[in-house]
């Protein structure tokens, strides 16, 4: 290291250690400083890249604002009696997001993605945890200042200045889209195993943006079809589905700052329920008019979006000559379970769907969306592991991911219903169609690989049967075992309250990261280390390019703009 680097790291370590006695009033900050010193020691001991640390440490200039607010608070100033304090605290919160969290997110594809090993994986996990910590700190400060309020209801929302309401569902949906696009890009580069030129990068970005727009259109059209079928079935009952929506939709929350709302209840029965046709609603205070282009409670057909996105990619080869369409489709298929895993967490907060109810209206199987998310994420991890080990290629992994996603829907849907109280009979038809298409494609891939037709049929049958059995077993375990485990967990937290404190999770996470750092490099042993400089390095170059960054930014913000109240 150069002398300036030694001064930078040494002064930071000395400063952190000297501050520890002064932070004895806050266990959280003590843990934060200990982990910061430990992370520096691990990076130096393992010889990991130091430039990311310099980037993160440079962002610590924001501590000028935080120290200023601490001094002002010591002298009795706060956001209620001092405009200057409120301004400095607001600048501090925004600076933490722009100067500390954002650079930490950006450097991962630059420095860590091209080189895969256990230490770099631990490095990325630690940085991700650091970003989460910063987001939490900034959010707490903005909440204290009254700029932001988190309304924990269904649908859960983040209110900005009591006027703009960002749906948590839309945030998770946007995150799911970005993660799916990122996974698709990495998988495509892995299968391509060649540098991605500017024309190809541009075409991939065009296809990605078009797939998002087509997916939204397909989701809306499919949901409209479901509504039309429901209207037809309800003609003889005298109750329109739209009336059932208003009666069964989760109640909106009031604008009272002191309202404390759980996920199972709301404080206000007045409905501010905007459908996706852009109907204007009166604001909470009656003086403003707000609009929700597409309320999450109006429903969204993920399968309709997937089908339209796939059709768009198939049609795109007519004007994007630099892209391997079949490889891109397979890469999209592999990213489907990951996107749905994240999106289902948003569904849990959105209230658009849940489990079936009994006669009293109580959900029989709580947190069924979390089960769907867990199963899809497990499918994604298993297929990525098989892809890394060389057991399957990209095209086979993509088809298997689509098949497993369809099987998950068919097994879980009998336990599900949406916000209108309808079961998932119609979506089962789309899932069955998805299953047939994926089985046909898997048969085609195996037959083209030189296997006998009957052998291919047997292989497809075994794969489908094993997938259905595994998902059915997981469903039964969730229904029978999880409630008992939750009861045991409640008893444990009552006996040992520290288990439910966030700092316990910090300890557990830090222990795992440190253990992973000093473990044998299993990634290199399984073959990932052999592809350094090929597929993953090309992915890093592509992900940091302007075309992908623009595509990810637009795609991630589109759901937030469409599904939030303005």
Automatic annotation (TrEMBL):
It comes from the Eukaryota. The chain crosses the membrane at residues 84-108, 120-139, 159-184, 204-230, 291-315, 367-388, 424-443, 455-475, 496-519, 539-562. GO terms for cellular component: plasma membrane. The keyword Transmembrane applies. Keywords: Membrane, Transmembrane, Transmembrane helix. One of its GO terms (biological process) is lipoprotein biosynthetic process. InterPro entries: Lgt. Pfam families: LGT (PF01790). The keyword NAD does not apply. GO terms for molecular function: phosphatidylglycerol-prolipoprotein diacylglyceryl transferase activity. This is Uncharacterized protein. It comes from Purpureocillium lilacinum.
